[in-house]
Amino acid sequence: GCELTASTKSYTFQVDEEDDSDHILALSVVCLTDGAKDECNVVEVVGRNHENQEIAVPVANLKLSCQPLLSLDNFKLQPPVTFRLAAGSGPVHLAGWHQILHREDASFEEDDDLSEEEEEELAPIMPAKK
Prior knowledge:
Elements: E1 2-4, E2 10-13, E3 22-32, E4 41-48, E5 54-62, E6 69-77, E7 81-87, E8 92-101, H1 116-121
Antiparallel strand pairs: 1-8, 2-7, 3-6, 3-8, 4-5, 4-7
C-alpha cells in the first residue's frame, strides 16, 4: 500500500525491466485516513495505453462526510503505474496486492487437457433413458 498526502502527491509502482516475469498489481481499497479534511480527494491512476501514450484515469473521489472509502474489487493494473492525488490534501491510503507470475512455472500455463490417467478414471457417459 501507499499513502498520498499534500506533501506526497504521487507514488509510482514499477518493476525491474530485466525481470522476465509477468506482474499484476491489483488495487483493492482507497480510503481517507486520520487527519483528512471534508474536501473532495480525487485519486487517479497514470499509466500508458497501447500506443505508449501516458493516460490518467480518475479511480476515486472521496469526501469524509459522504464517501470516505471505496472498494475497487481488485482493480488490476500492469506496472509501471503511478497513483496521483489530483485534488484534495488527503491523506488517502491505497491498499492492494502484487502478484508475480513466473513464465517458466507450469502453473502459469492453463492446461485444459486431461492426462491419459485422468481420462481412464472418468466413468463413461451413458445415454439417457427414455
